[in-house]
Amino acid sequence: MTQEPIFLQPVCKEKLWGGTLLRERFGYDIPSETTGECWAISAHPHGMSTVKSGPYQGKTLMELWDQHRELFGGTEGDRFPLLTKILDVKQHLSVKVHPDDYDAEDHGLGETGKSECWYIIDCKENAEIIYGHTARSKAELVTMINSGDWEGLLRRVKIKPGDFYYVPSGTIHAICAGALVLETQQNSEAAYRIYDYGRTDQNGQARELHIRDAVNAATVPHVDGFLDESTETRKGVTIKTFVQGEYFSVYQWDISGTAEMTQDAPFMLCSVTEGSGSIICEGKSAKLEKGAHFILPDQMPDFTINGDCTIIVSHI
C-alpha cells in the first residue's frame, strides 16, 4: 500500500485560562467559552487524536503506534514520542518547570520528562512569556520564592507573531495572557507548578503547588534553550529551521505556489497554521485548510504542496 498523509481529528480541552480562539481561528468544535487547548496530534491517554479518513479511519494514534509501527519507520518505544498542541492563552498560565526523563522516572510519574517549544501563531501587542529567572543559586531561588518576590525572580520576554522559543526541561516558564501558540513537546504531562497568581478553581480551591520538586528540577542559573535557526528558499517554499534538538526538530514551511517536497524522516507531524492549499502524492490530492493536522508516514513517496500556507513541521 502506498503511504499517504494521515489526517487527524484533534481533541479540545476546557481550561481555567482558555477562551474561544480555537473556534474562531480554526473552526474547532470547542466544549466551552473557556477552551484552552487543542490536542492536535496526540497519543497521550489524556486526549487522543483519531484518524479522520482513509484506511485507518477511526483508529486512535495510539492504536496506529501499537499496531502499525511500520508507518513510523519502526521507531522504538512503548509510547508515541511527540505531542502537538495549540494553546489559546486568554489568561496567564501558571508558572511551571518540567522534569527531565531521569527526574520523571525517579518520581514514578508514569511519564517521560518534558522538553517543549513554542511557535507564536499570534499574540496581542506587548504580550509576554516568562522564560527563565534571575536566581544565581538554588538557595537564592528558594529565598525569592519564599519571600514572594515574583517580579524580581521571573524573567519576562516580549513576544510577537512568528517568534519561536525552545523550552528544555528545567526551564522555569509560562505563557502570559493574549497569545495563540503551537506547542511541540515530548509526549508527557509531567509538570511542577511554582506560582499561580493566587487563583482558585471552580470550587474555590487554590491549585496545588509543587515548590520543592520544582526547585529540584529547575536549571539554576537559567540557560536559554539553544536555537540553531537557518532558512532555505527554493521554488515554491521557504523552509525555516527553528531547532534540531535531542527530542524533536521543528521547521516552518512557507508554501507559495507549487513546492516539491520529500519526507526524509521516520515520520513527520504537520500543522497548517495559516492559509490553505492541497497536498498531492502519486496522483491523489487532499485539501489543506488552516487548522488541519496530519502525519507524513515513513516511506511516503515524494509529494507536492500547492497553495499559500504556513505549516509547522516536527520530527524526532
TrEMBL record:
The residue ranges of the Mannose-6-phosphate isomerase cupin domain are 238-316
Q: Where would I find the Phosphomannose isomerase type I catalytic domain in this sequence?
A: 7-105
- Which residues of this UniProt protein bind Zn(2+)? H98, E116, H173
Keywords on this record? Isomerase, Metal-binding, Zinc
Organismal lineage: Bacteria, Bacillati, Bacillota, Bacilli, Bacillales
Family per record = Belongs to the mannose-6-phosphate isomerase type 1 family.
Tell me the PANTHER family matching this sequence.
FRUCTOKINASE, TRANSCRIPTIONAL REPRESSOR MPRA
- What name does the UniProt record give this protein? Mannose-6-phosphate isomerase
Instruction: Give the organism the record lists.
Output: Bacillus velezensis (strain DSM 23117 / BGSC 10A6 / LMG 26770 / FZB42) (Bacillus amyloliquefaciens subsp. plantarum)
Q: Which CDD domains match?
A: cupin_PMI_type_I_N_bac (cd07010)
Would I find Metal-binding among this entry's keywords? yes
Catalysed reaction per UniProt? Answer: D-mannose 6-phosphate = D-fructose 6-phosphate
Q: Does the keyword Flavoprotein apply?
A: no
* Entry EC no(s): 5.3.1.8
Q: List the Pfam families.
A: MPI_cupin_dom, PMI_typeI_cat
Q: Which gene encodes it?
A: manA
Q: How is the cofactor bound?
A: Binds 1 zinc ion per subunit.
- Cofactor list: Zn(2+)
Single biological process term from Gene Ontology: carbohydrate metabolic process
> What terms describe the molecular function in GO for this protein?
mannose-6-phosphate isomerase activity; zinc ion binding
Q: Where is the active site?
A: R193
Q: What class of enzyme is it?
A: isomerase
